[in-house]
Structures are given as structure tokens and as C-alpha cells.
């Protein structure tokens, strides 16, 4: 006759049945010469998890099953996954029946698997975009970010002062197309004021990141002098604010009360390396107020051929 603790015993038995069967199904991914040892190791892991899951902590067994699945997948190689026909289907069917007899446990397994798969997919997407995929710029392997280091105290920052940038652009030959950007926000006075994200840049910015304008042109070197008022619209802003009107080129815009002239629209694929912006402007007068000990420009460049970072 069963005692009052039989409910947890039944749950324990059910978790043993389905989880052991899942491990045997996953073993099909493991090479035959290592399969029996692999199954024993993971059955021992499941036994330990079941001992820890007393009191409704079924998620511990589910977490071990997820870990076993990840471990089995790592063994997979071309030609290795040859599940044993009818035997494989029988094990899968028995595992499914075990889950059906313990719906609460099955729900825990499904949720744990979903969270595990989702977290791994999100992590891979971040790593792939940040570390594996090349940057969407020409010769991206030679692009560098330039900063400032003070010899007096050894401190450093990833910004450069305006005087230091001007010296860099004039004297350093190991860096091609040194370019600066500094972000800000401006108000575009239309029927109603519109707040926009802006970046003031050098003309070399567009040459460095290797794009062609969608319409019009990019900035000219003679617009690098202080007080420039040329504007390049992002493709998104051109569509959103101006409805894709090609007649926007040479149109006057008032930004923070100052007149500017639109000289072009960037191509749709141009990505600002620091932040999403609505428009880029040429060198404004206030950029030259900063002293040498006030780094505030984001500065980029491309290593010249045969130049190194050493």
C-alpha cells in the first residue's frame, strides 16, 4: 500500500522515465565508441538532479536535460547522426509518453528548453554581430579608433581634442583619412519644431566609410573650415521628414536658428559608427573653442598599407 509520500515518489519515477529516455535519444548524436560512457555520465547527472529536485524543484532535472542536449550536439559531425531506425523512434515515443503523464514537469521542460535556446540564440547574435561579422565598411580590418593618453598620469580616453585632430590630419602619415565626428541634438524648425540627432563631421568621414551619396553629394574638403553650414541627410530622415523628395538638395534648413543648406542624402546602408543620427553637418564654429586638454571628438582612421599599431 502506498503512503502519503507516494505523490512525490510518482513524480520522481516519472521524471526518471522520461529524462533517461531523452538522454538515450540524444546519445544517437554521440560517436559509438563514446556513447555508453556518455550515457552513464549523464544518467549519473540526472540521478543527482532528481535527488536535488525533492520538494517541487523539477527544473533541476530539466536543466540537466538541456545541458545534455547541448553536450550531445557538440559531438555531432557529418555522418555521425544515424539514429537507429525503429529503436530510435521507440525511445522517442516512450519519452513523449513520459512527458504526457507528468504535464507540470513537461511544461517546466518546455519552458527551460525555450529559455535556453532563446538565450543561446540571442548571445550568438550579439557575438556574431560584434566579433565575427566584418564591419560594413571597406578595409574594415584596418579601421582604427584614435584616442588620447596623457603621459603625466597615464590616463587615457577614446576622444581627441580639436587641436590634436588638426595636428594628426596634417602630420601623421601612418593613418589614412583621419576623420572626426561629434554628436549633438538640434531643433529643425518646420511647421512644428522637430528634435533631431546630429553629428558634425569632417569631409573625410564619408571617404573613410566608403559610401556613395544616394542623391547630391557629400562634404567637400573646403567645407572643413570653421563655420560650415552644409548638411547631409540620412536616408531614413529623408524618407521620414521629406517623403523621399529629390528636390530637397540645395534646400535651406534652419537648425537651432542657424541656416544650413542640404547638399546630399546618404545611401540607405550608411551606418554612423558611433550612434544613429538623422543628419551630418560640416565643421561648425563652436568646435574650435575646445583647448588641447579638452578631448571631445570621436576620431577614426585607416591604417596605411604596411603600417601597424605597434
Secondary-structure blueprint of this entry?
Layout: H1 6-26, H2 32-52, H3 59-75, H4 85-101, H5 103-132, E1 143-146, E2 148-149, E3 156-157, H6 162-171, E4 175-189, E5 193-201, H7 204-208, E6 215-216, E7 230-233, H8 235-242, E8 252-255, E9 258-265, E10 279-281, E11 298-303
Parallel strand pairs: 5-10, 7-9
Antiparallel strand pairs: 1-11, 2-3, 4-5, 4-11, 6-9, 7-10, 8-9
Helix pairs in contact: 1-2, 1-3, 1-4, 2-3, 3-5
Model description:
This protein is an alpha+beta fold and 310 residues long. 42% of the residues lie in helices and 19% in strands. The protein contains 8 helices and 11 strands. It has helices at residues 6-26, 32-52, 59-75, 85-101, 103-132, 162-171, 204-208, 235-242, and strands at residues 143-146, 148-149, 156-157, 175-189, 193-201, 215-216, 230-233, 252-255, 258-265, 279-281, 298-303. Strands 1, 4, 5, 6, 7, 8, 9, 10 and 11 form a 9-stranded mixed sheet that branches. The protein has a two-stranded antiparallel ribbon with strand order 2-3. β4 and β5 (193-201) form a beta hairpin. α1 packs parallel to α3 and α3 packs across α5 (103-132). The longest helix has 30 residues, at 103-132. Residues 1-9 and 77-86 have low confidence and may be disordered.
Amino acid at each position: 500500500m502506498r503512503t502519503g509520500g507516494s505523490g512525490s515518489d510518482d513524480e520522481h519515477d516519472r521524471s526518471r522515465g522520461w529524462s533517461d529516455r531523452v538522454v538515450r535519444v540524444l546519445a544517437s548524436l554521440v560517436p559509438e565508441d563514446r556513447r555508453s560512457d556518455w550515457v552513464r555520465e549523464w544518467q549519473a547527472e540526472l540521478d543527482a538532479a532528481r535527488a536535488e529536485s525533492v520538494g517541487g524543484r523539477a527544473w533541476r532535472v530539466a536543466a540537466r536535460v538541456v545541458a545534455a542536449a547541448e553536450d550531445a550536439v557538440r559531438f555531432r559531425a557529418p555522418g555521425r547522426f544515424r539514429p537507429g531506425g525503429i529503436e530510435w523512434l521507440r525511445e522517442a515515443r516512450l519519452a513523449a509518453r513520459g512527458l504526457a503523464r507528468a504535464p507540470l514537469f513537461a511544461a517546466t521542460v518546455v519552458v527551460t528548453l525555450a529559455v535556453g535556446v532563446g538565450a543561446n540564440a540571442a548571445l550568438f547574435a550579439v557575438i556574431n554581430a560584434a566579433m565575427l561579422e566584418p564591419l560594413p565598411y571597406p578595409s574594415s580590418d584596418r579601421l582604427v579608433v584614435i584616442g588620447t593618453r596623457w603621459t603625466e598620469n597615464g590616463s587615457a580616453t577614446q576622444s581627441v581634442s580639436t587641436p590634436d585632430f588638426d595636428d594628426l590630419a596634417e602630420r601623421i602619415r601612418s593613418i589614412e583619412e583621419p576623420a572626426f565626428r561629434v554628436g549633438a541634438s538640434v531643433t529643425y524648425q518646420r511647421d512644428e519644431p522637430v528634435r533631431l540627432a546630429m553629428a558634425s563631421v569632417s569631409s573625410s568621414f564619408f571617404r573613410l566609410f566608403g559610401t556613395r551619396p544616394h542623391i547630391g553629394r557629400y562634404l567637400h574638403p573646403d567645407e572643413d573650415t570653421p563655420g560650415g553650414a552644409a548638411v547631409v541627410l540620412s536616408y531614413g530622415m529623408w524618407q521620414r521628414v521629406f517623403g523621399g523628395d529629390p528636390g530637397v538638395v540645395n534646400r535651406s534648413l534652419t537648425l537651432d536658428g542657424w541656416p544650413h543648406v542640404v547638399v546630399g542624402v546618404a545611401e540607405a546602408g550608411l551606418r554612423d559608427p558611433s550612434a544613429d543620427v538623422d543628419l551630418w553637418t560640416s565643421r561648425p564654429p563652436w568646435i574650435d573653442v575646445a583647448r588641447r586638454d579638452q578631448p571631445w571628438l570621436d576620431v577614426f582612421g585607416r591604417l596605411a598599407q604596411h603600417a601597424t599599431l605597434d
